[in-house]
Amino acid sequence: MKTRHFFWRLLLYRPGLYLLNLLAWSLIHMAPLLPGLLTKAFFDHLEGTYEFPYGVWAIAVLLIGAALARIALIFGGFMTDVHFRFRIATLIRRNMLAHVLKEPGARAIPCSPGEAISNFRDDVDQAEEATSWSVDTLGLIGFVIVASWILISIDLQLTVLVFVPLILVVTAAQIATARIQKYRAASRESTAKVTGAISEMFANVQAIQVAGAEKRVVDRFVRLSENRRQSMVKDKLLTEALSSVFTNSVNLGTGLILVLASYKMRNGEFTVGDLSLFVYYLTFVTQLISNVGNFMTYYKQMGVSFKRMVSMLQGAPATLLTAANYIGIGRTKTKHQPERRRAGAPDGEQSLTEERAIGGAPQVEETESSLNPKPPMIYAPPLQQLEARGLTYRYPETGRGIENVSLNLTRGSFTVVTGMIGSGKTTLVRTLLGLLPAEAGDIRWNGERIDNPADFFIPPQSAYTAQIPRLYSDKLRNNILLGIEEKPGSLDRALYAAVMEEDIKHLQDGLETMVGPRGVKLSGGQAQRTAAARMLVRDAELYVFDDLSSALDVETERKLWERLFRERRGATCLVVSHRRAALNHADHIIVLNGGVIEAEGTAEELLRSSESFRQLWYGEETGT
Ligand SMILES: Nc1ncnc2c1ncn2[C@@H]1O[C@H](COP(=O)(O)OP(=O)(O)OP(=O)(O)O)[C@@H](O)[C@H]1O
């Protein structure tokens, strides 16, 4: 999709509102035609070349009336403009956000959070500005057409002199816009880098301090800011230079008209009223010129912003940005039929993410919301067997990941994925759970294919604790519940299973303790176990733990597995670990190396057959 198609689709999003806005601003910009004619009548009346039937005072009254009418029109114009702008901006932001939320969790945005914020904020503003300025430009063009007709009927030669600067300026601006686009892209990019650096610095204060890297980080920030300063200065300088070209060429045109008019007036071909009309209209012609210039600049800048917004979609069609979705403002929606068919599902093949679940009868619960359409909850039948065949995912940046990995989990089993650092353990569980988009492979729940693992692998099917816990600046209780309803005893059971009961006693406000941004008030182990409790408070068929060992001592980890077995008999566990506490419990162990399965079996078998496994097993003793 090209920029012009994007622009056009934005205008057509709410065509009625856009036309109303266009009408309002056309009237606002064309309204000065009347005072111009009244001023001419006033001077001609005084000069005696024309007799106004109701006298000079009537002209004054009409002038005041015209001014008041224009004020009222401007008020109406602001209302329509605000409504239109707001809807456009909300549409794009909503569509981008909806797409980000649909992307596999681990690759939701293709850039740093700071850059993403800049896309959501500045780039959307740019699109809003361009659409909004288009109505002013069209309104002023309307004014110029009518004004030209009036002026030509008075004096063709002078009228041409009014428009020559206009043509020159528009041509100059056209030539300069390519460069504006380049400078604008550079300034946007450098702004995004500065925003990204700020967000990274705030997120990593502790890491920066312990590494003694304050000076280097600040130096880098200064470098980025300096780059930004330079690119912003270039951008602003060119924009302002163009703007001054617009204004001054029109001033020159005014001078020419005055000189020419004085000759014509001396010859009696031009009245004072004609002169006042020319000068009066010229002010608005000036406005059109700078308006066209502004619009062209905004339009070009929107082209840059459009590309950046498309990059947020990570390969999805650009039309998504302007897809006319319900944006949840103003009206309530009563009926919602969400689209549940997954891309990639071969025709005729049943899948668990569609409206049919195993067992014949549909087991999908429709949720209906008055504001936000939610996907239906999926209740799959209890897990008997989960199979993954040929799972492959490579990170585009490094080409590393996993290749052709298969696994088979039966109900109540405890499977451990182990391997050296960087062998692909996290990638495997993320790909299985749909947090990374599998390039190849097939996942089946009790033999039924799962087309969209990201929608499927959530409670009550599965729950997951990531290697790095993500906590919010809120109470500990809310961090664990994350919005679900607390059932009697459920929180206590989860805390006990996550071996957190002692920690809660020692925390100042127990479960009501505010954990601070990203959980900074908790120890690493507490944060990790909070994440485990968050997982365990959700009843699930399959529990996936990604490497708890970094935050748990051996004894705590042993307790955690024991409690989990006792409390949740029948639950199936997939655990990433290289700790004996987990390996000892395992029914089946998968050893990854370089993204592929190197060996698999029980601990006993692997101790005999796999050198890598022996290294991991004995490495714990030697601490290597
Ligand atoms: N976001 C990423 N972008 C690019 N490459 C990545 C990314 N994350 C991981 N990799 C690469 O993919 C490979 C597998 O990484 P992964 O995190 O799955 O390993 P792991 O076995 O879980 O490691 P660890 O034991 O350190 O957690 C590694 O070589 C790593 O360099």
UniProtKB/TrEMBL annotation:
Instruction: Check the record and name the InterPro entries matching this protein.
Output: AAA+_ATPase, ABC1_TM_dom, ABC1_TM_sf, ABC_transporter-like_ATP-bd, P-loop_NTPase, Type_1_exporter
Q: What membrane topology does the UniProt entry give?
A: Multi-pass membrane protein
Q: Which residues cross the membrane?
A: 12-34, 54-78, 133-152, 158-178, 237-263, 278-299
Q: Where in the cell is it found?
A: Cell membrane
Chief location of this protein within or outside the cell: membrane
Q: Give the molecular function GO annotations.
A: ABC-type transporter activity; ATP binding; ATP hydrolysis activity
Quick one: where's region Disordered?
332-375
Which keywords describe this protein according to UniProt? ATP-binding, Membrane, Nucleotide-binding, Transmembrane, Transmembrane helix
Q: Which residues form the ABC transmembrane type-1 domain?
A: 30-301
- What Gene3D superfamilies has UniProt attached to this entry? ABC transporter type 1, transmembrane domain (1.20.1560.10), P-loop containing nucleotide triphosphate hydrolases (3.40.50.300)
Family annotation (PANTHER family): ABC TRANSPORTER, ATP-BINDING CASSETTE SUB-FAMILY B
What is the designated name of this protein?
Answer: ABC transporter related protein
Species source reads: Paenibacillus lactis 154
